[in-house]
Design goal:
Blueprint: H1 3-18, E1 27-28, E2 50-55, H2 60-78, E3 82-87, H3 90-99, E4 104-106, H4 109-119, E5 122-128, E6 134-135, E7 137-141, E8 156-159, H5 165-176, H6 182-185, E9 188-191, H7 195-203, E10 209-213, H8 214-223, E11 232-236, E12 240-241, E13 245-247, H9 253-264, H10 270-279, E14 283-286, H11 293-302
Parallel strand pairs: 1-9, 2-3, 2-4, 8-9, 8-10
Antiparallel strand pairs: 4-13, 5-13, 5-14, 6-12, 7-10, 7-11
Length: 306
């Protein structure tokens, strides 16, 4: 059975399982099996590794493909092992940083805002993508006649993660700003825990609509133009700072500065540019907490609904 057919069958089974679910808080639905963690091989036995956590903005397999070149680049430049820890949810990554189980993490913007508010998670660098350091949420649907999220009443809807700006915070705020309870607005809701799977859920008819990261959706359509004929952008949120690289607030100051230098100069050598290409980033730039000011206000306004 081909991967495409297998994915379609899996999504169909998911739809059958979810059929008849009433409106209310989104259910947790995994469209893939998630490994607890994945690590690159240590090149320097005996040295304490730098632990880099990644939440599955993409599906697990795609996450490894995207992030491993960057991990190997950091390992080479720092001169000691770097271990990649992959987790299913944004909260699990935040918990790793808070408990000291990880030193560095690639997080979503919502995850940063929550972590900064809860335990002082610190910005390290932020990616620049096509010259931009800000992105937004796209509300996507199979029905091209919908003109905004307000036209999706009574439809099924896929969120990505409870802590995701583009996949949860933004659509909830877009509705609450009109006095609408998101838990009652849709006929049924569920979480996919990755943006690519949310896009697939809409494209394959498992959900009528979804909220996804604009950068990931744009990249998906670039890679598969036919997708743009099956899934349509019907609404857009305000822009906020791109998903950043962050650190545990207890990280050694010297290591933090060295790591920042490594990431900020990745675009200056061939291997660094290859790693950036895998991430679909132009380069990393100095982080500005001000880029997340509006998001902090949104998160505090709707966090009881997340």
């Amino acid at each position: 059975m081909s991967k495409r057919i297998f994915a379609a069958v899996a999504l169909l089974l998911l739809a059958i399982l979810l059929n008849g679910c009433s409106s209310g808080p989104a259910k947790t639905v995994s469209l893939y099996k998630t490994d607890a963690g994945a690590a690159v091989k240590d090149k320097s036995a005996g040295k304490v590794p730098l632990r880099v956590a990644v939440s599955s903005i993409l599906s697990p397999k795609e996450t490894l493909t995207v992030y491993q070149p960057a991990v190997e680049y950091m390992e080479d430049k720092l001169g000691y092992p770097v271990v990649l820890l992959q987790r299913k949810t944004y909260k699990e990554v935040n918990d790793l940083l808070q408990s000291g189980g990880a030193d560095v993490a690639f997080v979503c913007s919502g995850g940063y805002v929550a972590g900064n508010d809860n335990f002082g998670m610190e910005l390290l660098v932020v990616p620049e993508v096509k010259g931009e350091t800000r992105y937004r949420s796209y509300i996507i649907a199979r029905n091209r006649e919908a003109k905004s999220i307000l036209d999706l009443r009574g439809r099924s809807f896929a969120f990505t993660d409870p802590m995701s700006f583009s996949g949860r915070i933004a659509p909830v705020h877009m509705l609450t700003s009109h006095g609408i309870d998101s838990d009652r607005f849709f006929s049924r809701t569920f979480y996919t825990y990755s943006h690519d799977n949310a896009i697939k859920a809409v494209a394959d008819g498992i959900a009528d609509a979804a909220a996804v990261d604009s950068m990931i959706f744009d990249r998906a359509v670039e890679r598969e133009p036919e997708l743009g004929k099956r899934v349509f952008i019907v609404d857009k949120s305000l822009q906020v700072g791109n998903p950043p690289v962050v650190v545990n607030p207890a990280i050694d100051a010297g290591l933090k500065q060295r790591l920042r230098e490594v990431l900020l100069t990745m675009n200056r050598d061939e291997n660094g540019r290859k790693a950036l290409k895998a991430l679909s980033y132009d380069k990393f730039v100095t982080a500005d907490d001000g880029e997340y000011g509006e998001l902090k206000s949104l998160w505090r306004a709707v966090k009881e609904k997340l």
